[in-house]
Amino acid sequence: MPQGRAVNCGLLLWPVSTPRKSMTGLSTLKVGSNVVTWSFKECQRDSEVFKQDLASSDPPGCPPLRTPLAAPAPSAAPQRRFTMLKVLFLTMLTLALVESQDTEETITYTQCTDGYEWDPVRQQCKDIDECDIVPDACKGGMKCVNHYGGYLCLPKTAQIIVNNEQPQQETPAAEAASGAATGGMAASSMATSGVVPGGGFVASAAAVAGPEVQTGRNNFVIRRNPADPQRIPSNPSHRIQCAAGYEQSEHNVCQDIDECTAGTHNCRTDQVCINLRGSFACQCPPGYQKRGEQCVDIDECSVPPYCHQRCVNTPGSFYCQCSPGFQLAANNYTCVDINECDASNQCAQQCYNILGSFICQCNQGYELSSDRLNCEDIDECRTSSYLCQYQCVNEPGKFTCMCPQGYQVVRGRTCQDINECETANECREDEMCWNYHGGFRCYPRNPCQDPYILTSENRCVCPVSNAMCRELPQSIVYKYMSIRSDRTVPSDIFQIQATTIYANTINTFRIKSGNENGEFYLRQTSPVSAMLVLVKSLTGPREYIVDLEMLTVNSIGTFRTSSVLRLTIIVGPFSF
Prior knowledge:
Its main location: secreted. One of its GO terms (molecular function) is growth factor activity. A hairpin with a 2-residue loop joins strand 14 (272-276) and strand 15. The chain is built from 8 helices and 40 strands. The chain is mainly beta. It is rod-shaped and about 215 Å long. The longest helix is centred in the first third of the chain and has 27 residues, at 76-102.
């Protein structure tokens, strides 16, 4: 309520500068050192009874209650009644003024609405800072801003504007009720109540008074009320009495005592001191819980699922471990597989990653060593004797087959004879080349010896006219053949057959020479043919010359002749 000059108007005390129409409800006016409280409604009701008399008895300088009306002629009885009531009222008013001079009467209120608490020092309600006493007041990354009678949860990007204006003059509670509040800014929900007691922040998303205040699209506008809720007019010689947990500062302000910093708390050594407004609290440090009077470690590993694989409890905390082949992810909780083939490939040749581990493999021709990492060459030649027909040569990761001189490798493993007679040979013009398994030989194109003469290729005939031919075979035929060493026996190797058949003759076959060791056997298969059979295994290289004779005799015994087939058998040095 604005202060004005008070004039004693008899029955009522009326402030000069205040319009009469605003005087409703309960008001307090300070006159000297006295506080007079009255109800305007009661005064208006009483004034109806006395308005006629008061209109005529208003002292100079006081405004009339109404425009005087024509009144009936006064009588003696009403004047006496008015005089008595006036004396009685003045007497009561005098007694009240005298009593108020001895003891100053103060109206106090000890009950506060939600969000406020009674301040015994200032004798009024003050705002509670919920952001200070409510743990985790705001969630989701919001910040807590204290509000009159509550608090706000604002985004961290909210703009906070501090009002650096001078503190407004304190207004009594009764004037606050009249709606005459002043100040830089107030929330829209408090527009009807005027000044809100206490300090803190006031926020509004609407337009805010003050040239320096701006509102963003998504930001709250926040202004600091500069008035200190516990400020007391500075008076160095004046000692104030602060509540428990507070102390007087050099500016005569009751400020909180930080018992945790001052060391005046009684928390145990295993506890943490938390300073509160006017007090303190003893809490267990993070990772501990109170059990009785002691703080004991919380075994986080006993409450799944903290860790993905393995949990290791430590005093006041814990950490996660992973099994071999895994590593902790960025969240320090999940275990992810380690690709050992990319990170640190230990395999000598091929690496395959599997969940939690890896395996090594070797290329063809190698095998894993005992350490399961390196690869060792496989000696294929030692594992089998049938890989190559002649000779196996081991190489790193593979093997190669080789053949002896006179042979060539076919299909990687088999040895095939090289026909030198078709490629290159050293035989003379008068010689013929004969290829055998693993080599070749040169034989004379005319093998006939005296008294035989060459009649056709490889056929020598002894003329009848020559007396030397009477005891010799009539003809000698030269044949050549090649066989492999260690040939399976018995084996048919050569067939002999008569080229000329005479009537009434008998043919017999025999081995005339070259079978001293009994390696061969001649078996007659028909009257005109026979088969040479190998009965003993031969090992080369070696050359055998076997004469196979066919005797022809007529049935009456008057004619006898023979023919020889000189067979040259060349045994190769190998079984292929």
